[in-house]
Write a structure and sequence with these properties.
The chain is α/β, with parallel strands linked by helices. The chain contains 10 helices and 14 strands. Strands 1, 2, 3, 4, 5, 6, 7 and 8 form an 8-stranded mixed β-sheet that branches. The longest helix is centred in the last third of the chain and has 17 residues, at 251-267. InterPro entries: MBL_superfamily_lactonases, Metallo-B-lactamas, RibonucZ/Hydroxyglut_hydro.
Amino acid sequence: MDNKFTDIHTQDFKFNDGWGKIHAISTGTVSVKEAFRSTKKNQWTSKLEFILQNKFTAPLPIWVWVIEHPEGKFVIDTGENSKVSEPDYFSQEGILKEWINKNQFKFNVNKDRELHNLLPKLNIEIDHIDQVLLTHLHLDHIDGLKFFSNQKVLLNKEEWEKPSFALKSLLPENFNPSLFETNESHLDFKNTKSITKARDLHFIHTPGHTFGHCSILASNDRHDHIFFGGDMTYTSDQLKYSEMSGGHIDFKKAQNTIKTVSEFCKANKAIFLPSHDPYAGLRLQERNYFS
C-alpha cells in the first residue's frame, strides 16, 4: 500500500479554547469505477455509465480523521473492516445491492488497518474516543462502527430518515445514533449544527452525494479552517473545477454544495480534505490551503 496511505499524518491545530491535534488515518483502500469517481454525464446516465464500465481507478484511501480537541476526542467516520471482502458479506442486502457492492468496488482492507488497531499508534484506545461523527451512511464510512460500543454516534436526521444506498444490515445490532437537525448557521453556511461548546467544530449540511450528507468544519478565532468534505467530492481538484461524481444521488444539490464550499474555501484560509483524496493526508500535514 502506498506510503501516503499507510503513514499517519498529523497537524497541530489551535481550537478556540486551546491546542489540539488532527490525525489522518487510512483504513485500507478502495478502487471504484472511473465514471463513479468523475463523470460528464447527467444524474441518470452517469449511473448506467459506471455500471457498464470496466475501468477502475487506482486504489484510493479510506480516510478516517481523529480529532484531539480540548473538549474530548472525536472520530470522523469509522472506515472499513477486513470482512468486506468475504463472499457473503452483502448477502442480507438483496440481489441488486449485493451485486453492485461486489462488482463496482474493489476493497483492500487488512485486519491491521482496521481503526481499532490503528488508534493505539496515536496512543489512543477505542475507549478514549468520546464521539463518532458520521458524514453519511455508506459502508466505507460506517463499517468500523462495530468497534465502538460505548460512544455517542452523531448523524444528520435527514441521512437516517432518507438514506441513499445505505446498507443497514452492516450497522451494529440495536444501532441508535444521536440524530440532529442542521437548523443553525455558521459563517457562510445556513444549515449547520455545532458539535462543541466552544463552537469551533460544526456539522455542515452538504447534500448531493446523499440527501443528508454532512461535512465537518473545524475553525478557530484566528480564522483557520479545516474542511472535512466526506464524499462531496473525491479530490480537491473536483471542488476546484466543479466536477461531478457519478455516485452522487442529486446532481443539482451537489453542484450547489460544491459552489458554496468552493467559494468559502477560496475566500478563507481553509484546508479541504475529502475522504478518498490520495493527497489529503499530506495536505493536512503540510498545511496546504485550498486555492
